[in-house]
Design brief:
Blueprint: H1 4-23, H2 29-34, H3 36-64, H4 72-81, H5 87-105, H6 112-121, H7 123-139
Helix pairs in contact: 1-3, 1-7, 3-4, 3-5, 3-6, 3-7, 4-5
Length: 142
């Protein structure tokens, strides 16, 4: 049985992180490249947003009794195997998990242009995950 309170709490945090990123999404490229603090804010907020997705997915998988993923990337594979995501969506979220690893372990090599591109173009992926998991939580099925 899914711990609805726990998943809901994580979804609330994810929604906050997404809004925080949307609040700075209109930054110009020049300002973004010039403002080290803003870049660090975006890096950290993206990291915790992705980690929220990983936590939600992992919790959902465990509660459903599905096979245990061996890696963060595999969380999305297991969700796709069980109809929560499509294979195409899983591939997108696997890249997200990979980017999270870069943020955490190889942060000195983060390309600000790639970071800005993600901020400008990929927040819809986070929003979709949020909406999908909220729908599952409300419907109680996967």
């Amino acid at each position: 049985m899914v711990d609805k309170e726990l998943v809901h709490s994580k979804l609330v945090h994810l929604a906050e992180y997404i809004q925080d990123l949307k609040d700075v999404q209109d930054v110009t490229a020049e300002e973004f490249m010039r403002n080290k603090q803003l870049r660090r804010y975006v890096e950290r907020t993206l990291q915790v947003a992705i980690e929220a997705c990983l936590d939600i997915g992992s919790h959902w998988i465990a509660d459903q009794g599905w096979r245990e993923p061996a890696t963060y990337r595999e969380i999305f594979v297991v969700l796709a195997e069980n109809g929560v995501l499509t294979q195409e969506q899983a591939a997108t979220y696997q890249k997200m998990a990979q980017f999270r690893n870069l943020l955490v372990h190889d942060y000195a090599r983060i390309d600000p242009e790639i970071l800005l591109s993600i901020l400008k173009r990929n927040l819809t992926d986070l929003e979709f995950f949020l909406q999908r998991m909220e729908a599952l939580l409300c419907n109680g099925d996967a």
